[in-house]
Design brief:
Elements lengths: L3 H5 L3 H13 L6 H7 L4 E10 L5 E10 L7 E8 L4 H18 L4 E8 L7 H15 L8 E5 L5 H15 L23 H17 L7 E5 L3 H12 L3 E7 L2 E4 L6 H11 L5 E4 L2 E4 L3 E3 L1 H5 L6 E4 L18 E3 L8 H9 L3 E3 L1 H4 L2 H15 L5 H26 L3 H20 L2 H5 L1
Parallel strand pairs: 3-4, 3-5, 6-7, 6-12, 12-13, 13-14
Antiparallel strand pairs: 1-2, 2-4, 7-8, 8-11, 9-10
Length: about 425
């Protein structure tokens, strides 16, 4: 059998497959399960032309990966970022396959993106780029095939443009082909804060299990995009002290905690992260320590660290200095395998991305169901369904970890692989055909 290193080399996808194989060795699985899962079923690379506002033409590289459809159509976001690569998108699609299986929704993993700095585009250029990308991938997506959603530097408006372009190409109304859309175009209530809310429910399960008093628990959030903002807001509302937050430019630290609604208001209005307190539209600066992102990760006065930015933020070089006793991964792949080992040896509880950030894809599933059935569920019903699924998944993973002596990542992977293995067995393995 060809090894993952031979197949993929020393890259993000190769490392994701290596971690998959290492954990799979602790599960009772047929070899064919991993043989299937360590190879994406389809990898599409496209040239995405963009006519700039000055009349010039620029061509970007885009990707769409369908990792696996054992349990249903593939599902996953589209990101616009300078670091997007084939390896990154394949790894993200693999993690999405596991994520959907962890929470038990009937999707496989997909992912896509364009290698571009969207901050350098006008809004008109952003729209043209979004529509151009859909023109290139339209034959490969669909509500029963592959369903994209927002991701890094894409949002509901981008999904609205993409849905509109797809419907122009196919000449039919297909709201179920994209999720995370504007409400007026078939989007779902509750999708805007779903990723952060899912992580929040995981933390609440730990709170009940450990007897935490929220006012005694300090939190740091690395990455203040939508996911980071929403989990910080929900925890702040419950009385947790959010003592540090960061964006791509740096971090701010205040031991007594921040007024999170004020930070969110100022960040979204100005695109800057500053220590402020707002009354209405008036925001005043408050005293806070300026830190780098690396310094924030290693703060000693933090109980819960929430990485909500990009991949590989916690690694072998800094894992030994992480001050938090609990890590909840809202970002995809923020912790390397080497760091996992160091953190486990130090007794750090880590709730992995394939569980902690599954709220987004879960509510995307609800949106898809509503689109397919011509339904519109109230916000309360969506939030109740999300809480039930997230708490159920968190409880199952915790129980498995306790019973088998696994880390939370190992338990989440084994839980997901069990469901994926059932799908493989249902179609027959060599044990069936060679008997």
């Amino acid at each position: 059998m060809t090894t993952g290193n031979d197949l993929y080399g020393n890259d993000l996808y190769g490392k994701a497959c290596e971690r998959l194989r290492q954990i799979a060795d602790r599960a009772d699985l047929h070899d064919e399960v991993i043989e299937i899962l360590e190879r994406p079923m389809a990898v599409l690379e496209v040239a995405v032309p963009l006519r700039r506002d000055d009349g010039s033409l620029e061509v970007f590289t885009g990707y769409r990966v369908r990792h696996n459809n054992l349990r249903g159509p593939t599902k996953g976001g589209i990101r616009f970022h300078p670091s997007v690569s084939a390896s990154e998108v394949k790894a993200l699609a693999l993690w999405m396959t596991l994520k959907c299986a962890v929470v038990g929704i009937p999707f496989g993993g997909g992912k896509g993106g364009i290698t571009v700095d969207p901050k350098g585009l006008s809004l008109l250029e952003l729209e043209r780029l979004s529509r151009s990308f859909v023109d290139r991938i339209a034959d490969h997506i669909g509500p029963e095939t592959d369903i994209p959603a927002p991701d890094v530097y894409t949002n509901a408006m981008v999904m609205g443009w993409m849905t509109d372009e797809y419907e122009k190409i196919t000449r039919r109304h297909e709201p179920g082909v994209f999720t995370g859309k504007p409400i007026a175009l078939g989007g779902s209530l509750g999708r805007d804060d779903a990723t952060g809310r899912g992580a929040y429910h995981c933390i609440k399960v730990l709170e009940e299990r450990n007897g935490w008093a929220p006012g005694d628990v300090s939190v740091a959030v690395q990455g203040f995009g939508n996911g980071g903002q929403q989990v910080a807001r929900l925890l702040h509302d419950d009385g947790y002290r959010v003592v540090a937050v960061s964006d791509s430019r740096g971090a701010i630290h205040r031991p007594e905690g921040f007024d999170i609604p004020s930070l969110i208001h100022f960040k979204n209005e100005s695109r800057e992260l500053r220590a402020v307190y707002c009354e209405g539209s008036v925001c005043d600066m408050v005293e806070a320590e300026q830190l780098t992102n690396e310094e924030m990760l290693c703060l000693s006065d933090v109980d819960i660290l929430i990485p909500a930015a990009m991949e590989n933020q916690i690694h072998g070089g800094n894992a030994g200095a992480i001050g938090a006793s609990t890590i909840v991964e809202v970002a995809n792949g923020p912790t390397t395998s080497e760091a996992d080992t160091i953190l486990a040896e130090r007794g750090v509880m880590l709730v992995p991305d394939v569980l902690a950030n599954a709220g987004g894809v879960t509510v995307s599933y609800f949106e898809w169901v509503q689109n397919r059935g011509g339904l519109s569920w109230p916000l309360e019903e969506i939030q109740e369904r999300l809480e039930r699924l997230m708490r159920g998944a968190m409880g199952s993973v915790l129980t498995l970890a306790d019973e088998r002596g696994f880390t939370m990542r190992e338990a989440a992977y084994v839980h997901a692989l069990g469901r994926l293995g059932d799908a493989v067995y249902a179609k027959g393995t060599s044990d069936f055909f060679l008997d």
